[in-house]
Write a structure and sequence with these properties.
It is built from 5 helices and no strands. The protein is mostly helical.
Length: 163
């Protein structure tokens, strides 16, 4: 895997920036003033946020292919990385194991909520239900499937019902 050097952009601003706001459909009220020239603002190999990975692409392909021999081979290869023996999964059990392995490979990587919402759209509800583990006061999991909106967003948007 080669690492490309960081190159600061020398291109001119996007052409849309030179068009009057009123001429653009659905134009935002203002554009970002970020130009890519702030110290420390450029992307680098030393950054802590992965933009994309071949592993994620392989998971996307396996999920799109469904329960095939290639998906089984991929799942077993990922299980081997974690020191687990291969399995002979098929059908729904194979896809469940693919989801389980994906959650392990992307642990603390910021994928889980998006994954669970995508699974929910496919009729697979993996959101926790019932009481919190170890609760002594009866608290239960709610039914939210997204992060709560910040109060500034609620107050600044008249189309959002106020709590």
């Amino acid at each position: 895997m080669s690492i490309l050097p960081v190159v600061k952009s020398q291109v001119s601003p996007h052409p849309a920036l030179s068009v009057p706001q009123s001429a653009l459909p659905n134009a935002p009220s203002s554009y970002s003033t970020y130009t890519g020239t702030l110290p420390g603002g450029e992307f680098s190999a030393a950054g802590h946020i992965r933009i994309a990975s071949s592993l994620e692409a392989q998971y996307i392909i396996a999920e799109a292919q469904g329960p095939t021999a290639a998906t089984l081979a991929f799942v077993n290869a990922r299980r081997a990385v974690g020191g687990q023996a291969g399995g002979s999964f098929a059908g729904d059990a194979l896809m469940a194991e693919l989801r389980s392995q994906r959650s392990r490979d992307f642990y603390l990587d910021g994928h889980r909520l998006g994954d669970m919402r995508r699974y929910l759209a496919q009729g697979i509800d993996l959101f926790e239900k019932g009481a919190y583990p170890g609760t002594t006061s009866g608290e239960t999991f709610g039914d939210q499937t997204c992060w709560p909106l910040p109060l500034a967003e609620i107050n600044g948007n008249p189309n959002i019902p106020k709590p």
